[in-house]
């Protein structure tokens, strides 16, 4: 009987820890998306002609904000993390792809690459936590 109580307490602790980690990841994703969305205005780049990179930051930032908000309201899921992973990968690749595609981008942009790396790392951590939470709890061995 005591072993079942210990297992139940361990399961409750895992759920609470996973919920706290999901909230922290969601808030960090939300901050990253907001930084992408508001970055062109803060840097004063929106006064210039609309450039592909600015539009890219706005669109990806908006997507990340909505997905992170969904993650915070309904909990993390594989779809949310995959969308964030794709957005992060795109933000890493976009300065190079848009810069080589005869657009008005002035080369690789460190801010976009940095936020892309942050989003990618957060998504990988979220996917790892999701995988770990779905794994069955290890059984106690008796001597």
TrEMBL record:
Alphabetically ordered keywords of this record: Membrane, Transmembrane, Transmembrane helix
Residue ranges annotated as transmembrane are 24-43, 55-73, 82-101, 113-132
Q: Which residues form the SPW repeat-containing integral membrane domain?
A: 26-124
Record Pfam families: SPW (PF03779)
Database matches in InterPro entries: SPW
User: What name goes with this protein?
Assistant: SPW repeat-containing integral membrane domain-containing protein
Species whose genome carries this gene: Streptomyces hainanensis
